[in-house]
Design a protein that fits this description.
This protein has 193 residues and is of the alpha+beta class. Helix content is 25%, strand content 23%. The strands form 2 sheets. Strands 1, 2, 3, 4 and 5 form a 5-stranded antiparallel beta sheet that branches. It has a 3-stranded antiparallel beta sheet with strand order 7-6-8, with no helix packed on it. β6 and β7 form a beta hairpin. It is globular, with a radius of gyration of 26 Å.
Length: 193
């Protein structure tokens, strides 16, 4: 199973109940186990239409066998089932579920970027994430994915496998400076009389 962190937010209706309902629906996903929920915090809206109410935000830690796109699809179904209607960017919402990290991979595709591209700009994500995520995840989000080339998939593992693949650049040493093998000298043991 892959460890994932899901950002959660709500600023319409019974915000606390919306988050709890979303957690329950994530618990019912196939091949997925909820590990823990961070403290739920209050934050002001960032961007979007003026006059929005404050958000409640949290981060959910899960283990899943779903692929990143399967997980995205399931989270969007949960949002819809709870009444989310997508209108304009950063509009008020009953529930918002974002994949913050998915294991140790980077994805930078049109429909999905992992880690979430704006984690480091959002205290309402960082504060609850720091509460429940290990240091390795926090280090991972400091390294944003490279810009995606059109028509090219960009999924890159960052774990031990990737480290092994990294090549070490070595300087070429001129032949004249290379160490010459030492000749072995054999000494005969002198017999003592």
């Amino acid at each position: 199973m892959t460890r994932c962190y899901i950002g959660m937010g709500s600023n319409l209706g019974d915000r606390h109940d919306n988050i709890q309902s979303a957690v329950k629906k994530v618990m019912m996903l196939a091949h997925t186990r909820v590990r823990r929920l961070s403290t739920i915090i209050t934050s002001l809206p960032q961007g979007g239409p003026t006059g929005q109410g404050p958000y409640l935000n949290a981060v959910l830690e899960i283990d899943t066998q779903l692929t990143p796109y399967q997980l995205l699809q399931e989270l969007q179904k949960i949002e819809s089932s709870l009444g989310r209607v997508r209108t304009v960017k950063d509009a008020p919402r009953i529930i918002d579920l974002d994949i913050l990290t998915y294991g140790d991979i980077f994805m930078n595709e049109e429909a999905l970027c992992i880690p979430h591209p704006r984690i480091s700009e959002r205290d309402f994500v960082l504060i609850p994430l720091r509460e429940i995520a290990p240091v390795e995840i926090l280090d991972l989000i400091k390294r944003p994915p490279k810009p995606r080339k059109p028509g090219k998939r960009a999924v890159k593992p960052l774990g031990k496998k990737a480290k092994k693949k990294q090549s070490v650049k070595r300087k070429k040493v001129p032949a004249s400076r290379k160490a010459k093998p030492k000749k072995k000298i054999m000494r005969k043991a002198k017999k003592r009389s």
